Amino acid sequence: MKPQSGSILRNTLTLIVVVLLAWQALYWIVGEVALRSPLQTFAFAAKFMSTPQFAQHLAETAQAFGLALLLAIAIGLTIGFTLGASRFLSDVFEPMLIALYSIPKITLYPILLLAFGLGMSSKVAFGTIHGVIPIALFTITAVRNVKRVYLKTGRVMGLSPLDTIARIVFPAALPEIFAGLRIGFSLTLIGTLLGEMFASQRGLGFLLMSAIGLHNVDLIMALTLLLTVFAGTASVVLLALNQRLYARSR
């Protein structure tokens, strides 16, 4: 485990250094018109994070993202376990899920606006539809890959279907399920921010869209930095946990 954790940390630090160097070089080439240097961006972001405006918009985004992620996980796992346990249902509905996954989600946003209106509900719905399908697809595959001997053991022990899922299927499928949760996390965040950018008056996505409209380069760079740091940190943590789960399952 330690070598794996060390490898993740080393790769992450290397990526950060490369990105910062490329960012600084691009700033020297482009100049102040479209970019700010890393140092300027870090300084502005630190100052902006202390303002009440940032706290209000952050709370709005955090609430929408949290609700969307919970819904995506709950719905995705339910669909995944249901279809994964039934070959017939899987053959019928899995192609539909894959077809839906290939559709650009932004084309569905007008429908969501009509159904949920402006505000929190539409943002949560848009974030949820981004994350639910990958979670469901990974869960279907994970449940299918559970060794048949485990299921036979559960039947011999007289376990009920729910007990079999809780005590046998879920622990055995958890590493692959977690991989889907990691992807679903990132896509749900993207969906929530897109929802705020196109039809909201609060949230970090709305703030970013307003900054783009006003050509406020400082704010654009600061928000992009903060969102990238959050998404990147979460991805690294989830990747480390995912590798630990795979190591335990071997």
The domain count comes to: 2
Overall radius of gyration: 21 Å
Under CATH, the topology of the largest domain can be stated as MetI-like fold
- DSSP strand content: under 5%
SSE class: mainly alpha
What is the CATH superfamily of the largest domain?
MetI-like
What does the model show?
The chain is mainly α. It folds into two domains: 1-31; 68-249, Orthogonal Bundle (MetI-like fold), CATH 1.10.3720.10. The chain is 86% helix and 0% strand. It is built from ten helices and no strands. It has helices at 2-30, 38-49, 52-85, 87-102, 109-116, 120-144, 148-156, 161-198, 204-214, 217-249. Helix 8 (161-198) packs antiparallel against helix 10 (217-249). The two termini are 12 Å apart. The mean pLDDT is 85.
Give the secondary structure arrangement, pairings included.
Blueprint: H1 2-30, H2 38-49, H3 52-85, H4 87-102, H5 109-116, H6 120-144, H7 148-156, H8 161-198, H9 204-214, H10 217-249
Helix pairs in contact: 1-10, 2-10, 3-4, 3-6, 3-8, 3-9, 4-6, 5-6, 6-8, 8-9, 8-10, 9-10
What's the quick description here?
The chain has 250 residues and is an all-alpha fold. The longest helix is centred in the C-terminal third of the chain and has 38 residues. It starts with a helix and ends with a helix.
List keywords for this structure.
MetI-like fold, mainly alpha, 2 domains, 86% helix, 10 helices, 250 residues, 0% strand
